[in-house]
TrEMBL record:
Superkingdom of the organism of origin: Bacteria
Protein name stated in the entry: ATP-binding protein
GO terms of molecular function: ATP binding
Pfam families: AAA_33
InterPro entries registered for this protein in UniProt: P-loop_ATP/GTP-bd_All4644_prd (IPR017101), P-loop_NTPase (IPR027417)
Keywords of the record: ATP-binding, Nucleotide-binding
Gene3D superfamilies the record matches: P-loop containing nucleotide triphosphate hydrolases (3.40.50.300)
Organism: Kibdelosporangium aridum
Spans through the membrane: none
Coiled-coil zones: none
Amino acid sequence: MTRLILLCGLPGSGKTTMAKRLAAEIPAVRLCPDEWLAGLGVDLFDEQFRDKLERQFRTLAQDLLRLGQNVVLEFGFWSRAERDQMRDIGRALGAHVELHYLAAPFDELVRRLEKRNSEGAVPVTRELLIEYAKVFEAPDQDELDLFDVTASADRPQWS
Ligand SMILES: Nc1ncnc2c1ncn2[C@@H]1O[C@H](COP(=O)(O)OP(=O)(O)OP(=O)(O)O)[C@@H](O)[C@H]1O
Ligand SMILES: [Mg+2]
């Protein structure tokens, strides 16, 4: 069964780390908006461009699934609507759709991001993370049950 894996979580939750591991292990094609934006010389905070890129990736993901390739999408999937849409798209193509929800306590996210910022990544500050956390819609158990496979980090999302 072809696998479509959605990696959901805030910055610092470990999506890219997990995606690289899964892409090598499964194997699967990994589509990472941040890397493509950086490679194209586009500002990572250009939301309009990011939306367009993600739309292109959704189309590409469908082509890959039709060809029998497994796909890992590390969009973050902050909204329930986005996750619902992608699950429908995958299912329509007969894929197994998996949601991997990466949660970590807020202070742990900040700690990881501060370390990453110091290594030269585009900085995500504590203040920005607070704003992101306000709009992030964490999946609940009812939603997780809608997927073929789910995986979550051990530690619960802060409330
Ligand atoms: N499970 C983990 N435990 C501890 N540190 C981790 C874990 N997963 C990732 N990290 C570290 O945390 C930092 C952020 O991880 P990563 O870049 O994978 O997150 P991300 O979700 O892709 O973030 P972004 O949304 O900003 O791209 C990295 O320095 C990574 O090495
Ligand atoms: Mg990442």
